[in-house]
Amino acid sequence: MKRETEYPIFNNAADSLERGMRMYLDESYTNAHKYAILAVYRAVELFLKDALYRINPILIYADIDKRVQEDPRTVGYKEALARLENLSVHINEQSKKSIERLQNRRNTIEHREYRPFDSDRSYRADAIKVLYDFVPQYLKDEELSIYIDDDLWRELQMFILDYEKLVTEATAQVDELISVPPGDYGPEVVHCPQCGNATLVIKGKDKQDYCCFCRRFVAMECCCDCSEYYPAELLEEVSMCLDCLRALGDKD
Ligand SMILES: [Zn+2]
Ligand SMILES: [Zn+2]
């Protein structure tokens, strides 16, 4: 039997996570994954807030110099992360990237449109894995599992295992694609903007950029200044990345 804590934000977060899981498992409704993404992202934000709340409830408010009654806005994910870092609660870089990817996806859904993507499967596992690693870390003596329905918890672990298996398979395919005779230069491997894994091989398949995890072509373009790879549509008109453009602007 699952339990509830004395922490209201935690209970809210666990409920969002469960809702997200249920939506992911719902095959009867075509757009269920849309609500799953929103719910899991909400769970991430709430768990971060809960971590702050346990240190001191006042820390969840955006402006802690004002009286809470006057300004009850609470922190977003970026501020929450920064505060936690300052309080020596660290979240690894990989997890931060996972949260950011999920946030971007959620923003697109919230403000523009929802179209199902193959990569949603990886976002989901990715974000759930963040919670799986991070929540027990700040709960210290407790386990997240006791607050989640037994059936959902098993599903949640399956998602993660399944995801890790897919990453391993993709990595093996990358190794195949980039293996060349000694002395030759193999194709370059970069992080895929869609799934976030280092599984995108530049000109890896049929002379096109191919992500072995997403199993799809993802057109990339090289910034003419810093030589980093970016999604082709971002560099379409200028062939230079935003950072380099900005640096150029600063110089003028
Ligand atoms: Zn990918
Ligand atoms: Zn650049």
Description:
The termini are far apart. The chain is 53% helix and 8% strand. The mean pLDDT is 87. It has two domains: 141 residues; 73 residues, no CATH class. A four-stranded antiparallel β-sheet has the order 1-2-3-4, covered by helices on one side. It is of the alpha+beta class. A hairpin with a 6-residue loop joins strand 5 and strand 6. The site of one zinc ion has 8 residues, from helix 8.
Tags for this model:
globular, 6 strands, 252 residues, two-stranded antiparallel ribbon, 2 domains, 8 helices, alpha+beta, binds zinc ion, single chain
Task: Draw up the topology in text.
Elements: H1 8-25, H2 32-55, H3 77-86, H4 93-111, H5 120-139, H6 150-178, E1 189-190, E2 200-205, E3 208-211, E4 216-217, E5 220-222, E6 229-231, H7 232-235, H8 242-251
Antiparallel strand pairs: 1-2, 2-3, 3-4, 5-6
Helix pairs in contact: 1-2, 2-3, 2-4, 2-5, 4-5, 5-6
Residues 192, 194-195, 197, 199-200, 211, 213-214 line the site of one zinc ion.
Strand portion: 5-15%
Task: Count the domains.
Answer: 2
Content-based structural category: alpha+beta
Average pLDDT confidence is 87
Shape: globular
Q: Would you identify the regions where 5 or more consecutive residues have pLDDT less than 50? A: none
* Radius of gyration (Å): 21 Å
Distance between the termini: 64 Å
Elements, N to C (H/E): HHHHHHEEEEEEHH
Number of helices: 8
**Distinct small-molecule ligands in the complex:** zinc ion
Strand order of the largest sheet: 1-2-3-4
Helix content: 40-55%
The biggest sheet amounts to:
4 strands, antiparallel
The tally of beta strands, per DSSP, is 6
